[in-house]
Predict the structure.
Amino acid sequence: MASLRSLCVAAAVAAVFVARDSSAFTAGPGRLVMRHHPRAWVTMSSETVSAQPTTPVANAVPPVSVAIQKFNELYSKPIIPMYRALINDLIVTTHLTVVRKDFQYNQFFGLGMQTIYESFFTSYPEPGAAKDIFDAILGSLNLDPAVVAADTKAVLEWADGKTEAAVLASIDAPEGSAIAETMAAVKANEKFIYSRVFAIGVFKVMGKVGLDTISEDDLERWFSAMNITTGLIKSDYDLFNGSIERMRDAEQMFKEIEIREKKKLADRLEKKAKSAAEAAAKKAQGVSEEDDEDAPTEQQSAEI
């Protein structure tokens, strides 16, 4: 049952972080392995980044293979097969964001990573392994798990009880709030690097302030308030939200299967118990008949 549940979840979210040429990154026996490929391309934001081997240059950014290797060092246990592609793609696409020259980590990026973990990794069947895997993913990207956790808590506590209007107004008037100042800094940064992980953090806050169903107009209002106008926002939201819905459908299917299996098991046990009771009754009846046959009659007793 645990394997079925994990398979459903992994299948539901595999599209969230997808490499265009997934053959460039393969999973070894329980570990993540990067296989060199003459044309390994990965789609990231509005750019196409080539992973072709190049001549080393001064201050070159570390290749994806370094992040994969670091993950394997931080988490040396075998990865359940159905999760390998998901973890691999998450590391690859996020690595291609964090190594960009103008990338700056902020609390919303941390919240986005934490939201991904809570949405898709908590169903990992091995007890306690999901958190260790997530920490290894963060470590492979040079992100501190403690900082990500603290930033997640800070953003959600800041947003708690606020209205959408109050959050958006705080961008232009932070009034000493570290979270609002981050949003203001994003707005002021002409070279801000948009990423899906950052957007997921914003989606989480939008839900926190009461936007349970987020429309295209809602996305336009929030991201334009931070001076972000990329056309990827809507597609990233649809992809993430669709994956959440597929995961919920998969979980519901699992619950229904589990209920049916439990009912079948109960029926089998009931049938087995009934058969055992009938067999015991027949055996008891047979013993009683034998006792009756062996018992002397009154006439036989008198003659004796």
The chain has one domain: 2-51+60-255. The radius of gyration is 30 Å.
